[in-house]
């Protein structure tokens, strides 16, 4: 491995690609050499603007070659980069801009709200190009990237990842790919990208695609399955709600997806029955990924792994009981994870850092168990609980049980205040295609298997679950809907 800092390995991939197209946007193709040239020019522009080691830069970018090059250029000059996802609320934008941001780099036509200073990609490209080899200024222990969590369980937190950690990650190093990634990578020949390259997942699978000899293909309108066929995509990232819609569409009005090789399910757990159905309908293309902003990728199930599992973790993962001791296989425990590329903590939040980053491990707050073969299964989150009559009940088992009913495509459970029991279980269910859930039978199912305390006091049938900007189901919006009396 080279001793130069991140993003040297990514730049080497672009140089090796040469004249091969690595980024395709409509009729425009950009080669590895072309992208490398953009990085050089943008890095010169950033340095001319006074951006360097220790500078905080917010990246407000879409999906195009310049956006990809701009993020790499920020790392070339050694800046601390925070990606700004589309769809953030005004409060969340203020929070991001408060992360010691010195400037915003954007390819947008309008200035982002609350920006202390705006540097447009077009302006940066007008700076004189520096002579000689591209100089990398990142220092190993400096923070290279702040990755904002989804905020699905509260306000987003900024995970601080150093240049050393970014360089240690396996994405741009084929010799370090774990088995599941070696299975996935060749399938990323035409990797569909959309939304924003500020997304950690979208960007890193893009780098993986280039490392595997593939091309990042832009979808301006990412409606599935049309975007997959229109762009002849071989692979893409997909959330659980989108996967469910794609499977339903293929059942009712199938299109030719014979060129599809991989859908990487990301953002939330995929229940076993939905996993099996997706494999049955779409074929052996479903990869079920598990990771966190704090750790990066933790594990991934290939199409050949047990449905409902996230495969065999290639990193250190321990399931621990309430006493902090490891639990045996088959027993649920809180997952503690250790990876080479993990964050060092939360930016400017020592209290939360101390709670989550413990003795070199990251406390995921996720519940999981290992089966007898060593595959990891996710079963819920430690904070997704309902306290009924002073007794704590996890929502994950209730959701999974409801989702086994043939009338239910997906289920989401929340706890809401109750005058008699302190809190009560409330469930929101999305019906299976052509089915009408029978509330009484759903309540009976829960009571029979989990006991009366877990029986939902109310079950609301909804067309679809509201999503956070990250694409994850947003339970806070469900609670708000309940409070407002909406179905």
UniProtKB/TrEMBL annotation:
Q: Which PROSITE patterns does the UniProt entry name for this protein?
A: AMP_BINDING (PS00455)
Molecular functions per Gene Ontology: acid-thiol ligase activity
What Pfam families does this protein map onto?
AMP-binding, AMP-binding_C
What are the residue boundaries of the AMP-dependent synthetase/ligase domain, all occurrences included? 18-347
InterPro entries recorded:
AMP-bd_C, AMP-bd_C_sf, AMP-binding_CS, AMP-dep_synth/lig_dom, ANL_N_sf, ATP-dep_AMP-bd_enzyme
Domain of life here?
Bacteria
AMP-binding enzyme C-terminal domain: from which residue to which, for each copy? 398-472
Note the PANTHER family from the entry. LONG-CHAIN-FATTY-ACID--COA LIGASE, NONRIBOSOMAL PEPTIDE SYNTHASE PES1 (EUROFUNG)-RELATED
Record's protein name: AMP-dependent synthetase
